[in-house]
Amino acid sequence: MADEPVTSDAPDSPFRTTGTDHVTIWGSNAEDTIAFYRDLLGMPLVLRQPNLDDPSQTHLFFDTGDGRIITFFVSDDRPSNQGPQRGGVGAVHHLAFSFAPEDFRTVMEALEEAGHGYNVFDRGIFQSLYTQDNNGLVIELSTDKFAIPDDRRGEVLATTQRIREDAGADYAKDEHLEAALEELGIEAEPADLPDAASGVGGVD
Q1: Degrees, nearest 5: CA angle 105-112-39
Q2: In this structure, which of 4, 55, 112, 191 has its CB flanked by the most CB atoms within 10 Å?
Q3: What is the pLDDT of residues 128-187, one digit of tens each?
């Protein structure tokens, strides 16, 4: 499977998804969940109702910013727990949310003021801050180095992949992304972002 082509072309499958509708997380309690996702990350709380499979719990719906939804099953008798997350196959490694590049420094200041530690990494084609929510779930706050139209994101990434493979690079970097945008005729100014380490372990 490692040799399977990377492409933005639709696969030969019975049907195709049209996007991410929502992701649902086992949460702790409503107060802590709302404090992190609404009051710190700025996600509007757009729906609150019983968990239809277990009405003893509450189901919170947050708008992540583009109409995509993240939801939590919460209960007032569950304290938040910032202990280590369960790892291994089937576990969630982290959740990533995007934000505007001009807000990068504001995001860092807000996390600091709220008492949330974070790390900043240059991920080659984007830049990210990593923090934890009220339950220790790793949250990545990511911003693009160049503005990529949503309807062409897959095409841009697949072209970047081809260019970085042709260059013999181990992972996609901003020069590969910039070359892909130029090849596809997409004009994009680079974002003004702070310098950061790559955070790439053992990969040049």
Answers
A1: 90
A2: 191
A3: 999 999 999 999 999 989 988 888 988 999 999 999 999 999 889 989 999 999 999 999
Global confidence as pTM: 0.85
Q: CA 101 to CA 174: how far, in whole Å? A: 15
CB environment 117-140: b (16+ within 10 A), e (fewer): ebebbbbbbbbbbbbbbbbebebb
* Nearest 10 degrees: Cα torsion 163, 167, 168, 170: -60
Q: For residue 36, give Cα distances in angstroms to 76, 101, 139.
A: 16, 21, 11
Cα angle at 89 between 84 and 91, to 5 degrees? 45
Cα end-to-end distance, the chain, whole Å: 23
